[in-house]
Design goal:
The radius of gyration is 17 Å and the shape is globular. It has a domain at 3-176: 2-enoyl-CoA Hydratase, Chain A, domain 1, CATH 3.90.226. α1 links the parallel β2 and β3. 49% of the residues lie in helices and 15% in strands. By secondary structure, the protein is an alpha/beta fold. It holds the Pfam family ECH_1. This is Enoyl-CoA hydratase family protein. It comes from Nocardioides endophyticus.
Length: 255
């Protein structure tokens, strides 16, 4: 089972992505994560969520091999729908969500982190918007939670990595010095949050979301319309084959 969950006595729900070798997330796992996050609204015992990846890094993107393997447009439609449902669920989650991001966040990983309330990452962690290399166009609305407009455009058009230490200068990431410190700091912040009055905490989350007014579901659907067009024309399939054959390895530190 690639998705694990545990709930502490303090009310910290930890969701763990464990899909070796690089935590590429498939369609079914996206649905499972979205369901678990959305269900928090009906779980008063949950005060904060920590989302993390097991093993080599946070999330190495969507499962591109699965997309290529499924017939017709089933794979890309499944990924787009799953990515939308998960990032909307994270943004709209009834309680704060802390992302514990170590070593890398690729493609979908950046979108997921950008939809969370707090992101903890090591200074050398690489955030890569790999969509263009992968024949896709979406993700800007989620990534806006991590970097300003012009930097986002550069990162998206070049697919070059943005380091955790840089994101910390924008105030969007809590950067720690090394990979081993990421999860302890994420858990420390979660414990501080979990100690707050639960009804006030949920109201505060709703208030912040109301002021931010980031309609992830609608805007991401609008962005990914071009991705679906690229797939219908056949351009995206070739890009994904290149990505599978070697492009992703250039983003990942897997030793």
């Amino acid at each position: 089972m690639p998705i694990h969950e545990s709930l502490s006595e303090q009310g910290v729900l930890e969701l763990v992505i464990d899909a070796p070798p690089v935590n590429a997330v498939g369609i079914a796992d996206l649905a499972t994560l979205a369901r678990l996050v959305a269900a928090v609204s009906e779980r008063p015992e949950v005060r904060v969520v920590v989302l993390r990846g097991e093993g080599r890094g946070f999330i190495g993107g969507g499962d591109v091999k699965e997309v290529q393997r499924l017939p017709g447009f089933e794979g890309i439609l499944g990924q787009v729908t799953g990515s939308t449902d998960l990032t909307v669920a994270l943004h709209d989650c009834a309680v704060p969500v802390v992302a514990s991001v170590h070593r890398y966040a690729i493609g979908l990983g950046v979108l997921v982190a950008g939809a969370c309330d707090i992101v903890v990452a090591d200074e050398s962690c690489t955030f890569v918007l790999a969509e263009v290399d992968n024949g896709a166009t979406g993700g800007a609305v989620q990534a806006m939670g991590l970097m300003p407009d012009k930097r986002l455009r550069q990162a998206m058009f070049t697919c070059e990595p943005v380091l955790g230490r840089e994101l910390a200068t924008y105030g969007t990431v809590v950067a720690v010095s090394d990979e081993a410190s990421v999860l302890p700091e994420a858990r420390r912040l979660a414990a501080v949050i979990a100690a707050k009055p639960p009804t006030v905490l949920r109201a505060a989350k709703a208030a912040v979301n109301g002021s931010a007014r980031r309609d992830i579901g609608r805007l991401y659907r609008q962005e990914t319309a071009l991705t679906l067009e690229l797939n219908m024309r056949g351009d995206a399939h070739e890009a994904r084959e290149t990505f599978i054959s070697g492009a992703r390895r250039g983003y990942l530190s897997t030793d």
